[in-house]
User: Fold this.
Amino acid sequence: MNDVKKITNLIYEAAVVKRLLRTGWQIFGDNEEGVGEHSFMTAVIAYFLARETSANMEKVLIMSIFHDFHEARTGEQDKIAKFYTKRDQDKANEHIFEQVDRDLLAMLNEYEEKESLEAKVVYEANVIAFSVEVKLLLEKGNTHAKEWLLANNTRLRLPQSIALAQELTNTDSQNWWKSIRETIQEEFAKL
Assistant:
């Protein structure tokens, strides 16, 4: 390892990202999600979008994991706060990564530009990850969630992202284990 002390510090900074809560949910009044949890969902979604778009998988997954890492230093900023404050995520990323991994820093700069296919895939996976959370709130009865689900999905441009978001919007989140539930219920009936 190049500089184990710098990597060690970066790993402890990752622990901050893991603990940091997304602030928009506080305004929404319903839900708690950490930045690390959001990054995980973004990476899962980005994996499948990358397969569908022939994007560079390695680059997509790296961007996904680190796309919000700067928030350890800048804080997680909701959409309303962005009207009133400015944060310098490029500077934060530079301070975090320039001495540890310049290639990663270059990838994060590419992500922020949103011009390459890989950056677009990760951005749209990021948007869809938010939609998944909103869809779960809608199913729990949050009366404001539908407005945000529909509005958020209009941010998508890639056909593969649009199709996935539409399917997620129209599918009950509990369908994934429907056949398992039926099997369990059959077992209950035997008792």
